[in-house]
Amino acid sequence: MYRITVPATTANLGPGYDVLGMALSQYSVFECELSDEIVIELDGLEKEKLTIENNLVINCMNKLFEKIGKYPSGYHIKITNGVPLARGMGSSATAIIGGLLSANALMDFPLSKDAILELATEIEGHPDNVAPALLGNLIVSTKIDNGEIVYKSITPFDELMCVLFIPDYEISTSSSRSVVPKSFEIRDAVHNMSHLTLMIMGFMTGDTNIISKTMNDVIHEPYRKSLILGFDELKKSALDAGAFGFALSGAGSTVIAFCDKADAERVSESLQETRNMLGIAGKVKKIEPCRNGAICEKID
């Protein structure tokens, strides 16, 4: 039997729209083995929303079987979901990577990690979430003209902590994308390019002053934040409490504050107080970055 552990992710990180994502230390787990028939178990967070019919994990397993031209006679897989659905924490990327790695393990590892990433990107559409879910760390990625996925991994500095407010309400990626304009002024593109470049350098060097000055987006967040209850109030409370960055996590509804570990409790308490004042149901959670990415291990 194999156990595959896949981290949640946060993507965009302000100006990093569709190119930047980071793995988080919160996980979904997939346990699988060959069998005479197909048996699927669903468990974990929000399991009542999961269905066997049109299940993304199973669909991705079939994608890998189709790619290698070989299918098992059967398998038993238990999916234990640990990532909130439709909250901007990479639940679909976690399912995609979990499905592909499970199928790859069952078929004795025919695909390399880069081949898995290419297939995952083909399924997801872009690599910003699937890359950190597979590889861990902070990943800058893009798909070039020949279809190759080019990426660079940045190890988060030791003192980095993420404080998330995860609301109870969902926002689908398609709904969130629908409010983003289809074209932009050149000045907006230059703004994001310059801010993203400097922000990445800040994460590479641990320069939180640079991060705080450049985690500012004009491409997607000003439009998407209209879908997020209390976005401006939550941002102000986090920054006032010591966070050096604040952003929409993925497509939302989750928001994420970046701070030093020493400030994490104060930032957490401030977000909790603000969400209570605003009357928004949800959970504030401190989560460290995940440096390992997805792990596949053989178990008894």
Q: Short description, anyone?
A:
The protein is of the alpha+beta class and 300 residues long.
Keywords:
alpha+beta
What is the number of strand segments?
A: 11
Oligomer: single chain
Global shape: globular
Give the structural class.
Answer: alpha+beta
* Weakly predicted, low-confidence segments: none
Q: Could you walk me through the main structural features you see in this protein, from its secondary elements to its overall organization?
A:
α1 (56-68) crosses α2 and α6 (186-205) runs antiparallel to α7. It contains 10 helices and 11 strands. The strands form 2 sheets. Strands 1, 2, 3, 4, 5, 6 and 11 form a 7-stranded mixed β-sheet that branches. It has a 4-stranded antiparallel β-sheet with strand order 8-9-7-10. The mean pLDDT is 95. The chain has helices at residues 56-68, 91-106, 113-124, 130-135, 173-178, 186-205, 208-214, 221-224, 231-240, 264-278; strands at 2-12, 16-34, 39-44, 75-81, 138-143, 149-154, 160-167, 245-248, 255-260, 282-287, 295-298. With 300 residues, it is α+β, with helices and mostly antiparallel strands. The protein starts with a strand and ends with a strand.
Strands, helices and their partners?
Elements: E1 2-12, E2 16-34, E3 39-44, H1 56-68, E4 75-81, H2 91-106, H3 113-124, H4 130-135, E5 138-143, E6 149-154, E7 160-167, H5 173-178, H6 186-205, H7 208-214, H8 221-224, H9 231-240, E8 245-248, E9 255-260, H10 264-278, E10 282-287, E11 295-298
Parallel strand pairs: 3-4
Antiparallel strand pairs: 1-2, 1-11, 2-4, 2-5, 5-6, 7-9, 7-10, 8-9
